[in-house]
């Protein structure tokens, strides 16, 4: 599949059913045509999501972009195999049993229904610099890079193989304003010019290690001084931001899903630091 190595657009096999679409979205030399193709495809994907056909939208998005297929959804963290993707030999080295970091969650990519909600809620314009915290193989950053006007899109990813894949892949697609930093967000800082953060539960706190609290303090420190928009799927982080006195809840959305026959909900919240709220 395209994206696995560094074969580039012209080496894509001609019987790949997604080739024509991929070419129009990323490799049409006319930027106006390219932008029009992206707008058309964005509308098609949004229509699928709003009709409840989000799984189809996710499949199509992954295949057109050449993202590796995520496997083993629903397997408890401790039982997961080292290779969680169906291709590309992508391997966790830091997480769980492999590297011993129990608070590092599996690299499950976001669903398009989350991303389309976050795109609207974060309202990303040309002045925005957006960061996906724990960006995995890059699905969310590629989405923001393609479908928003954000001037820069950063991923921050602790697993070296995932970060390397995401950088190679974004470069192959010509998404030059999309970049993944291979670092631990808990020991590093957010990029200085960040205006928006996307947080799809990348880690949890474990005994003696309040990872979520450490990151909440990070956000509060930035939000105290500058406008910051944060889209969060994490009850723990949402609670910390709510209690901080620096961030206010502006929007929320719940997405149902079924696991082991039980209906659960994936709850997202949008916070802004009060500085971002305007008069
Ligand atoms: C649930 S996945 C999210 C993937 C991506 N954000 C998306 O929405 O498609 C979480 C990712 O966070 C990464 N991660 C966990 N702890 C981290 C940390 N302290 N610093 C950077 N990345 C981390 C994991 O390796 C994993 O790839």
Q: What is the structure about, briefly put?
A:
The protein has one domain: Rossmann fold (3-Layer(aba) Sandwich), CATH 3.40.50.150. Helix content is 37%, strand content 18%. A 7-stranded mixed sheet has the order 3-2-1-4-5-7-6.
What does this structure look like?
The chain is of the alpha/beta class and 279 residues long. The protein has a single domain (9-277), classed as 3-Layer(aba) Sandwich (Rossmann fold). The protein is 37% helix and 18% strand. It is built from nine helices and seven strands; from the N terminus they run αααααβαβαββαβαββ. It has helices at 19-27, 31-50, 54-65, 96-99, 112-122, 139-147, 160-172, 211-225, 235-244, and strands at 129-133, 152-156, 178-181, 196-200, 229-233, 247-259, 262-273. It has a seven-stranded mixed sheet. Strand 1, helix 6 (139-147) and strand 2 (152-156) form a beta-alpha-beta unit. Helix 2 runs antiparallel to helix 3 and helix 8 (211-225) runs parallel beside helix 9.
Percent of residues in beta strands?
A: 15-25%
Q: Sheet bearing the most strands, described? A: 7 strands, mixed
The CATH class assignment is Alpha Beta
Shape, principal axes of CA atoms: globular
Mean pLDDT across all residues, rounded? 90
CATH superfamily: Vaccinia Virus protein VP39
What's the CATH architecture? 3-Layer(aba) Sandwich
Bound molecules: S-adenosylmethionine
Total domain units: 1
Q: Which structural class is indicated by helix and strand composition?
A: alpha/beta
Number of strands: 7
Supply Rg.
18 Å
Number of helices: 9
The string of secondary-structure elements, in order, is HHHHHEHEHEEHEHEE
Helix content: 25-40%
| Spatial sequence of strands, sheet with the most strands | 3-2-1-4-5-7-6
Give the N-terminus to C-terminus distance in angstroms. Answer: 50 Å
The CATH topology label is Rossmann fold
Low-confidence stretches: 1-9
